[in-house]
Amino acid sequence: MGILKKEENGLENLEKITHVENVKLSEDGKNVIIIDQTKLPNREEYLTLHTAGDLYEAIFELKVRGAPAIGICAGYGIYVLARQIETEDYDRFLEEFRKYKEYLDSSRPTAVNLSWALNRMENVVTSHSDLPVSKILKLLEQESRMIQEEDIRMCRAISEFGLSLIHDGDGVLTHCNAGPLATSQYGTALGPLFLGKERGMNFKVFADETRPLLQGARLTSHELAKSGIDVTLICDNMASLVMKNGWIQACFVGCDRVAANGDTANKIGTSGVAILAKHYGIPLYVLGPSSTIDLNCASGEDITIELRDADEIKTKFYEEPMALPEVKCYNPAFDVTDHTLITAIVTEEGICYPPFTDSLAEVFRKKRS
Ligand SMILES: CSC[C@H]1O[C@H](OP(=O)(O)O)[C@H](O)[C@@H]1O
Predict the structure, then answer these.
(1) 16, 230 in Cβ contact below 8 A?
(2) Beta strands 334-337 and 264-267: pairing type?
(3) Cα–Cα distances in Å, from 217 out to 193, 221, 246?
(4) Is the pLDDT of residue 12 over 80?
(5) pLDDT score at 2
(6) ipTM score here?
(7) Domain check: are 79 and 218 in the same one?
(8) Ligand 1: does its nearest atom lie under 6 Å from the Cβ of 67?
(9) How many domains does the chain contain in total?
């Protein structure tokens, strides 16, 4: 993120935010380097990930997070691990590669980009069984870089389409974080806001803090404020009132897995935002790349929801526990927003309107053409 000028907001910092290097391959190709997002906004610390354990822990503990960023990290990560497999025997190489893949894939179940990226990297190996391992490694490096480069292009296109849905001066409500830190550049749900700012447009953003891990408070308000975008941080339970007050003209949210019928898994609380938006007659837009659409999931019923530790609710951000040790907790990291509550799904191929079964399938037809 570079050195952000504390006293200045606005365009001086905009590019440092929209083009943050949150996930990258080290110069020598032996490590993945990430910004530790659990330390933001107070400290900007970088982590060097080399082992399978480093990568698993970084994803599981949300040091790198956001569906596309997880996919990019997994792509670079499996390449870094593949370089550590000491054999020229193809079958042995594939066997070890698959062990690493299975391990990384087990770190978080909901964001489809993780398995999507790992499957894509495995395809490179299985479709080149005739090549020496050294050549396969070069192809793996190329593929891992393509995953990131494609995401940059997808987020930029999503930002353009998303910007067409809002007007200068609009109030926009966001939930969790789907900015550059969660992706590559610009982001998805936040991308249109940064792109609009570059063009001199101004929005009034209301960012849900997003309990329990506070991605909205820690990350979204940071990215927006440092870019000079008007952002008001609210507790999640304030979303209804700001909508009732008429301060919101659109809700922009990200996604972790979009089913074929448009049901969308996103950060816990998104379905509540969608129900409120429907009640107040406010459009709710899901913004995400085609790499987050899973046509193998017929509906939200098919999406696995990650359950996380009780400490994230009871102790993580408090000096003392906020509930007794014996008190049970339920901590789903995501929920599924029914497609009937979604106005449109914004992808890099265009804005998908209901019936989503048709419009989402069209996204992939366009990509193939
Ligand atoms: C651009 S994808 C962002 C998406 O991922 C977040 O989940 P997490 O912070 O647990 O990785 C959240 O659902 C965002 O909408």
Answers:
(1) no
(2) antiparallel
(3) 17, 5, 22
(4) no
(5) 64
(6) 0.99
(7) no
(8) yes
(9) 2
Indicate whether 43 and 101 sit together in one domain: yes
277: three-class secondary structure by DSSP: helix
In one-letter notation, the amino acid at residue 74 is A
Q: Is 28 a catalytic residue?
A: no
Q: DSSP assignment of 21-48, as one string?
A: --EEE-TTSS-EEEE-TTSTTT---EEE
Q: Could you tell me if 74 and 202 lie in one domain?
A: no
Mean pLDDT, to the nearest integer, of 144-168?
A: 98
Catalytic residue among 151, 170, 208, 256: 256
Residue 99 lies in a domain: yes
Instruction: Quick: pLDDT tens for 271-309.
Output: 999 999 999 999 999 999 999 999 999 999 999 999 999
User: Is residue 4 included in any domain, yes or no?
Assistant: no
Whether residues 180 and 113 share a domain: the answer is no
Residue 3 lies in a domain: no
CATH number at residue 140: 1.20.120.420
Residue 205: phi, psi to the nearest 5?
Answer: -95, 135
Q: What's the domain range around 224?
A: 160-368
Torsion of CA 123, 20, 221, 264, to 10 degrees: -10
C-beta of 336 in contact with ligand 1 (< 6 A): no
pLDDT of residue 219: 98
For ligand 1, the distance from its centroid to the CA atom of residue 176, given in whole angstroms, is 7
- By most ligand atoms within 8 Å of CB, the mutation choice from 155, 156, 215 for ligand 1 is 215
Element (H, E) at 242: helix 239-244
The CB of 69 under 6 Å from ligand 1? The reply is no
* Enclosing H/E stretch for 293: strand 293-294
CATH code where residue 267 lies: 3.40.50.10470
- Among residues 155, 189, 220, the one where a domain terminates is 155
Q: Are residues 170 and 304 in the same domain?
A: yes
**Three-class SS of 134-153:** HHHHHHHHHHHHHHHHHHHH
Evaluate if pTM is beyond 0.90: yes
Q: How confident is the model at residue 3 (pLDDT cuts 50, 70, 90)?
A: low
